[in-house]
Design brief:
heterodimer; A: alpha/beta; D-Maltodextrin-Binding Protein, domain 2; 3 domains; 3-stranded antiparallel beta sheet; 64% helix; 9% strand; globular; B: CBS-domain; 6-stranded mixed beta sheet; 4-stranded antiparallel beta sheet; 13 strands
Chain lengths: 597, 353
């Protein structure tokens, strides 16, 4: 079989599209961003509990008193764990994605229902869209649309379009052929047959499709969080990266609450809008007795609307009169930024979070507006190379991030290393007293079940381990390197550590695992791992020319190991969501860093 | 009022239908076509339906009768042949003109009622008028009138699924009548109803027809129904019309064994009338109309005639609508007719031989 250069074709196809159609992508990006920003502004405007009240009234009206109370309790819970703004941006993301999806899905579904040929052509396309792993088109998405919420929304649309189209087609095809024939027999035009007979009767199936679109959209928010979509997905992604089970659960539960609310509401709306559903509901209600009558009580639409409007007015009033004034930059000579925006991307690793929030604080003190975006590593480099981000402070060069540097190095400016050297190693818990060096592993595979717990197979460390380290220390055949992910490795380490089981993992320093657990870095007498990386600051092409002062500050920036671990510890103590407060407290004790001298 | 005419109508589904029609015209067989992937559903059908007539197309499932019906209002386009209604060739009309004809001149009643479940009874009955663009008030008034005509006064605000099958079909009938279409196509409209309700509906249709005088094409697989309703009947088999005529023609002179085997199960005493059995050639018994015995008319069913004949000691006198004697029915002739025996009575020794 000759090797088909399919991948190369796709590569050049992506390059071609990017160079020829960038105006189109920019337009789409602007449109989607506009929709999203507008919706976020609206949804975040009212005080959380007031807005929860409005959502609860909607639930009361559509489903009944019990649903209303539960909705309020759910949203109050989201607010109390401090994830309200994230929840609102996730809600906006899902709603925008759903809206755009339906604009395409319903006409396509109608078209497919009326033509067997269209249906046959669409089917494999839809299969492709639904089953192609989202990560595969996320990176091209960043190339086309830049980092942020847009590629996440686009990926969500691609993923949730198929059920929308399929359910629309199914709903219309399901309508009794005799009814369609009856409409035609009385001289109804095809368009009127659609509007008067097919769509009303397909409505329950259609609404089930809308429901599916929303649910699939919600299932994509974590993926969107990896490319800078933020919101609850970003929180989950951050939690996974730090094995922060508590935050992961809180954010996950918030997604569940949103999902259940949207699911129940669209379900109820489906029954409300279809004439048949309304009649079934009315009958069920008149049959209900006793407690069921109270729990299922629903206000008259007029009362519900009045309630919602009153709450909305209160909310509007509060944000108009009670809102805090805008934060102005510092006065005088310190105001170098004069309100210009700098965007920093970061991988949710501890040193990335610490250095990013440190720079956010430092730059804000000097009059810049700083926009921080949490991203997956590939997305971060793609975004930076595309100019969607200004700089990032967590590039491990020359080893760990070698493959990204190889691909995008010519479009990036290296502003130097601010910390180093780092090291990559294998680590075991300190209770494994007889294992001190890589050489000690030989002959002990029985204890370790023959496994070395690895991380992402794409990581530079994994390549080094498999190609060189295993060979040099004669571990090949005895041990198997388990491909996985960093969170998976950390979870396995935690599990084994808690049970005092033998375990050997790929690890690197600096890493918070060394401060959380007592671990031994296995010595490398043959120096196979090579010299460590430096943690570099990388900027987009042209940033140093646009912001020479900032570039100069970044070039001269250095932290010692003691400073970095101290800052990371401070952030961990202060708690999530308060990173900047931790940075401020830390800077009080480190005026030299604050002065950028 | 307009005449409905079908002229050498063919309908072939599948591959190369035009070639198939040419093969059929040249005496080809239906089963040969099937091997080529073409299905001939209707083959060379011609008939005329006079205004105010009920024309019944009778046949088993797969005989092509439903396909034929759908060509009469253009839901299906004939592969060959013409459909003329009031002289207008429906097969030559554009889709838009055809829709106009369907909405104003032809309406249809379906086997499974085909009521719109998301519309109440009044909205269902007014559907055809809504399509025509009749204003709401006018539409509701005319729909309510049609419903009243079908015995559904007071049910306007009910929903289709709240009605029994018979009542649902009355709504279907009202929907068809509301547009004042001249031609009514009824596709096995009473087949889904249980026998008592079916009889009721047949009676009601005949009752309505007495005043409305629509032109009706009625499809059924039930010969008894065909005989009860039809002024003219066409029997279809394998896409062809095998016999066309009145109920009496078909019962007394079946065209082939197929029709004869059908006719076997029909209760002749209820379908046939005195008309079919009476003799006008024998001289009337003098003073027949003066003895005071009961007489019958030409359209009295044989069952009733038998009851009269059992009590009357001489041939039963048949009178016309004006009371004049038109013929008589001797008992032996009546018995022979019901028994389908054409030979004359003979001596005992000869009967055994």
């Amino acid at each position: 079989m000759p090797r088909l250069p399919l991948g190369a074709w796709v590569d050049s196809g992506v390059d071609f599209l990017q160079s020829r159609l960038s105006w189109l992508f920019d337009a789409i990006s602007a449109l989607v961003t506009g929709l999203y920003d507008g919706l976020v502004a609206v949804l975040s405007a009212p005080a959380p509990l007031l807005f929860a009240g409005i959502l609860a009234i909607a639930a009361w009206w559509l489903r009944g008193l019990l649903a209303g109370l539960l909705a309020f309790a759910g949203f109050a819970l989201v607010d109390s764990v401090g994830l309200w703004p994230d929840a609102m941006s996730t809600l906006s993301l899902v709603l925008v994605a759903t809206l755009v999806t339906l604009v395409f899905a319903i006409p396509l579904g109608i078209w497919a229902a009326r033509s067997d040929r269209v249906s046959a052509v669409l089917r494999p396309l839809l299969d492709f869209m639904q089953t192609m792993p989202a990560m595969v088109y996320l990176i091209p998405g960043i190339i086309f649309f830049g980092v942020g919420v847009v590629p996440g929304i686009i990926a969500t649309i691609v993923f949730s379009l198929p059920p929308g189209v399929r359910m629309t087609e199914l709903g219309i095809r399901q309508v009794d052929a005799e009814l369609v024939e009856a409409a035609e027999a009385f001289g109804t035009t095809p368009r009127d047959t659609l509007v008067r007979v097919q769509l009303p009767l397909a409505l329950p199936t259609l609404m089930a499709g809308v429901n599916q679109v929303i649910m699939l959209g919600l299932s994509m928010v974590v993926i969107a969080g990896m490319v800078g979509g933020g919101g609850l997905g970003g929180a989950v992604y951050r939690a996974i990266g730090n094995v922060d089970i508590g935050l992961g659960f809180e954010a996950g539960l918030s997604i569940v609450i949103l999902a259940m609310y949207l699911d129940r509401m669209t379900g109820a709306l489906g029954r409300q809008v279809s004439p048949l559903g309304r009649r079934t509901l009315a009958r069920a209600r008149s049959a209900a007795t006793g407690a069921a009558r109270v729990w299922n009580h629903r206000p008259q639409p007029a009362y519900a609307a009045t309630g919602a409007v009153v709450l909305a007015l209160v909310a509007g009033g509060l944000s108009t009169f009670g809102g805090s004034g805008g934060e102005d930059g510092p006065e005088g000579a310190d105001n170098i930024g004069k309100g210009r925006t700098v965007s920093i991307g970061y991988i949710p690793w501890d040193e990335g979070i610490a250095s990013t929030y440190l720079w956010k604080e430092l730059l804000e003190r000097r009059g810049f507006k700083v926009d921080t975006r949490q991203l997956e590593a590939g997305a971060l480099y793609t975004g930076l190379a595309g100019g969607g981000l200004d700089f990032q402070t967590d590039a491990w060069l020359p080893v760990t991030h070698a493959q990204y540097w190889e691909k995008y190095g010519d479009k990036l400016e290296d502003l130097g290393s601010w910390y180093g050297p780092t090291s990559i190693e294998l680590a075991v818990p300190s209770y494994m007293k007889d294992v001190r060096s890589l050489a000690d592993l030989k002959g002990k595979s029985g204890q370790f079940k023959g496994r070395i717990i690895g991380i992402e197979p794409s990581a530079g460390a994994m390549a080094l381990l498999k190609d060189k380290v295993m060979k040099e220390y004669g571990l090949e055949g005895e041990y198997q390197v388990v491909d996985g992910s960093t969170p998976g490795m950390l979870a396995e380490l935690k599990r084994a550590y808690d049970k005092k089981e033998p375990v050997v993992t790929v690890l690197w320093s600096p890493h918070w695992a060394y401060s959380s657990y007592e671990l031994t870095k296995l010595e490398d007498p043959k120096a196979v791992w090579g010299k460590g990386d430096g943690i570099h600051t990388l900027a987009r092409e042209g940033f140093a020319a646009d912001e020479p002062e900032v570039a100069a500050w970044l070039r001269s920036f250095k932290l010692t190991e003691e400073q970095l671990t101290g800052l990371e510890a401070k952030i961990q103590q202060t708690g999530k969501g308060k990173e900047q407060q931790a940075v401020r407290a830390w800077l009080q004790d480190h005026p030299d860093v604050a002065a950028l001298s | 009022m307009s005449t409905l005419q079908a002229e050498h109508v063919y309908k072939v589904f599948g591959n190369r239908p035009d070639d198939a029609v040419r093969a059929l015209e040249g005496g080809g067989d239906r089963s040969e076509l099937r091997a080529d992937g073409a299905t001939a559903a209707v083959i060379d059908v011609s008939f005329d339906v006079e205004p105010g007539q009920i024309f019944v197309v009778m046949g088993l499932s797969g005989s092509g009768k439903s396909t034929l019906l759908r060509m009469l209002n253009g839901l299906l386009e004939p592969t060959a042949g013409r459909i003329l209604f009031g002289g207008q060739d429906l097969t030559a009309l554009s889709a838009r003109e055809l829709r106009r004809v369907r909405s104003t001149k032809i309406s249809m009643v379906f086997q499974h009622f085909a009521l719109f479940p998301h519309r109440n009874v009044l909205e269902n009955a007014g559907y055809g008028l809504e399509v025509q663009g009749v204003p709401r008030a006018d539409r509701d008034r005319r729909a309510a009138e049609a419903l009243a005509l079908c015995g559904l006064e007071g049910w306007e605000m009910a929903w289709p699924d709240e009605l029994s099958g018979g009542m649902q079909q009355r709504v279907g009938l009202a929907r068809a009548l509301a547009t004042d279409a001249e031609l009514l196509l009824m596709d096995e409209s009473f087949s889904a109803l249980d026998p008592l309700i079916r009889r009721d509906m047949q009676d009601q249709l005949l009752e309505l027809q007495r005043t409305l005088k629509k032109t009706i094409v009625f499809i059924t697989h039930d010969l008894n129904e065909a005989m009860r309703l039809g002024d003219g009947i066409a029997v279809m088999r394998d896409g062809r019309v095998v016999q066309q005529g009145t109920a009496e023609d078909i019962l007394t002179r079946p065209a082939d064994d197929y029709v004869a085997s059908f006719v076997q199960d029909v209760d002749r005493s209820r379908v046939l009338t005195a008309d079919a059995v009476m003799t006008t050639t024998r001289p009337h018994r003098p003073g027949a109309d003066s003895c005071g015995c009961p007489t019958v008319t030409a359209d009295t069913p044989l069952a009733e005639l038998c009851a009269v004949s059992a009590r009357v000691p001489h041939p039963v006198t048949v009178t016309g609508t004006d009371g004049a004697v038109v013929g008589s029915v001797p008992q032996d002739r009546l018995v022979a007719f019901i028994g389908d025996e054409q030979r004359a009575p003979v001596r005992c020794s000869e009967v055994a031989a």
